[in-house]
Write a structure and sequence with these properties.
Distance between the termini: 45 Å
Number of strands: 16
Radius of gyration: 17 Å
Shape: globular
CATH superfamily of the largest domain: 2,3-Dihydroxybiphenyl 1,2-Dioxygenase, domain 1
Helix content: 10-25%
CATH topology of the largest domain: 2,3-Dihydroxybiphenyl 1,2-Dioxygenase, domain 1
CATH class of the largest domain: Alpha Beta
Number of helices: 4
Strand content: 35-45%
Strand order of the largest sheet: 2-3-4-1-5-8-7-6
């Protein structure tokens, strides 16, 4: 695997009880085009934007599996990475397993309980691109809501070599710590969220935040926080899709 991807989020995956409905919803909001990945014995939906595959969707494989968005971080040696994270307090949900024609992956929860995945791509698999921002439908920001920010940072820094960017004081909410992921560029953040169990919130870029806002509502979703302006001039909001799964959008505000 090209080292340029090491330590970066390269894939997003939605577990949902209604894949067809999710395809329609995210297609209307993000312009994703869905197709069957032709995985034997199951339906796995591949969703692309601007000619690049961005995310997969699937029904829960086991009972009591929560519906959520999951992010995959690229590693060069999945066996070593899985052993290292387990030794640092991560819990294994799915052990290292093959994805035919793609590579190998593992699903874990970090020491505070937030789910995350790691993937080692096969040499012959076309490597994904990881744009900084500005491409409609692509992943842009990753935000860890955790219960112990210093401990969480220590885990991910040791695991993936992430660094610290700027830190913003949010008052009672504590510090919003920017994260550099693999290349010194801030690509995410983490902070203590006392209201929810630890999880990763993923932001997808949209060309017009107000158009996306209306598409979420007309598609049966909800907007629970925002839109609000963030440093740099972009606008963000957090939403729930029609199946209740949390997601977030970020983009420009074009209306005057």
């Amino acid at each position: 695997m090209a080292s340029i991807l090491k330590g970066k989020f390269v894939w997003y995956e939605l577990t949902t009880p209604d894949v067809a409905a999710a395809e329609r919803f995210y297609g209307s909001v993000l312009g994703w085009k869905a197709r069957d990945a032709q995985v034997p014995g199951m339906y796995y939906s591949l969703n692309s934007a601007n000619g690049a595959d961005i995310a997969g969707m699937m029904a829960p494989m086991m009972e009591n599996t929560p519906s959520l968005w999951l992010g995959y971080v690229a590693v060069e040696d999945i066996d070593a990475a899985a052993a290292k994270s387990a030794g640092s307090g991560a819990q294994t949900i799915v052990p290292v397993s093959p994805i035919p024609g793609v590579g190998r992956f593992t699903l874990q929860t970090d020491p505070q309980g937030a789910p995350f995945a790691m993937i080692e791509y096969a040499e012959e698999f076309p490597k994904p691109s990881v744009p900084d921002h500005g491409i409609h439908g692509h992943g842009w920001w990753r935000e860890l809501h955790t219960s112990d920010q210093p401990a969480a940072y220590g885990f991910y820094a040791e695991q993936f070599g992430w660094g610290k960017g700027d830190a913003m004081d949010m008052g009672p909410m504590g510090v919003y710590q920017l994260l550099t992921m693999g290349d010194g560029i801030p690509r995410g953040a983490m902070f203590n969220d006392r209201d929810r169990p630890p999880f990763w919130l993923f932001y997808f870029w949209v060309d017009d935040i107000d158009v996306a806002h209306d598409a979420v509502l007309s598609g049966g979703g909800k907007v629970v926080n925002g839109p609000m302006e963030v440093p740099g001039g972009a606008w963000v909001f957090e939403g729930r899709d029609p199946q209740g799964v949390t997601f977030a959008l970020v983009g420009d505000r074009k209306k005057k």
